[in-house]
Amino acid sequence: xxxxxxxxxxxxxxxxxxxxxxxxxxxxxxxxxxxxxxxxxxxxxxxxxxxxxxxxxxxxxxxxxxxxxxxxxxxxxxxxxxxxxxxxxxxxxxxxxxxxxxxxxxxxxxxxxxxxxxxxxxxxxxxxxxxxxxxxxxxxxxxxxxxxxxxxxxxxxxxxxxxxxxxxxxxxxxxxxxxxxxxxxxxxxxxxxxxxxxxxxxxxxxxxxxxxxxxxxxxxxxxxxxxxxxxxxxxxxxxxxxxxxxxxxxxxxxxxxxxxxxxxxxxxxxxxxxxxxxxxxxxxxxxxxxxxxxxxxxxxxxxxxxxxxxxxx
Length: 313
Hints:
The chain is an alpha/beta fold. 47% of the residues lie in helices and 12% in strands.
C-alpha cells in the first residue's frame, strides 16, 4: 500500500510540473486575436511560434453574424493585438464581443486594434445601375481574403503592425511574411491550372461574397439573387433573376454554405438550376488553415462544375 501511495504521489507531482510548464509556455506566448479563422491563420503564420493567434470565429458560417468563441472571449483580455477585415464585416458582433471580453488593449480606438485591408482596392457590392441601397457593406465588398492575391497585402500589413509592436522580432515577421507570399503565389498558380477548363464559365450567385475569387480565377458571375447587401430578395426579384439566367443559358448558382435553400428553391420554380454551396470561411476540421480552406473552396467549385457538365451531356 505504501509503495502504491508513493507511485501515485510521484505521478501527481509529475503531472503538476507538466501542467505548470504548459501554463508557463502559454503565458510566454504573446496573444493575438483575429476576427475570423482565416485571418488568424495568416496572423499565426507571420507571427511564428512565440505568438498565439486566436479567432473570434469558431469556424465556418457567416462572418458578419457569428457567435464569438467563448474561449476567445475569456482569453482576449490578455491580448495585445487585434486584427479584422473592417468595412462593416464585423460591425454586428464586435460591440458585444469587446463588451464581454473586457479587453481595452484591443478595443476600437486603442493602439492594439487594426484593420488589415489598407492598400486593397475594394470591389463594389451592387451594380452601378442598381437603385437599391445596401443595408450593410456600403463602403465596399469586405470578402477580400477570397482572392489569395489580396492576402499578400494583408500579410504585409500584419507584418508591419507586429514589427512596430515587437521590434525585436521584426526579422522573424519579415521572413515569415516573405515565405507566406511565396506560398500564396504557388497556390494562385495551382488554382489557375485547376480552374483553367472552366475559364469564363457563366454563373449566378446569391450575393457578392465570391466576387474576388471569381475575378481572380476567370469565373463570370453574370447575375445576383440579392439586389444589395442586407436586402432580402422578393418574388419579383427572383423572377427577374430567373429570366436573366434563362436568357443567358445559366443554370449554376454559387451560394454561401450558411444560407438556407429557400431562395434557390424559389428560383427553381422558374428555371432549372443547380446550386454550389461554398464556404466563406475556414476553421472547421476540413480547413484548419487558410491554404486548406483554399483547397476545399476550389475543389467544391470544380466538383459543382463537373456535375453540371455531366448533367448537360
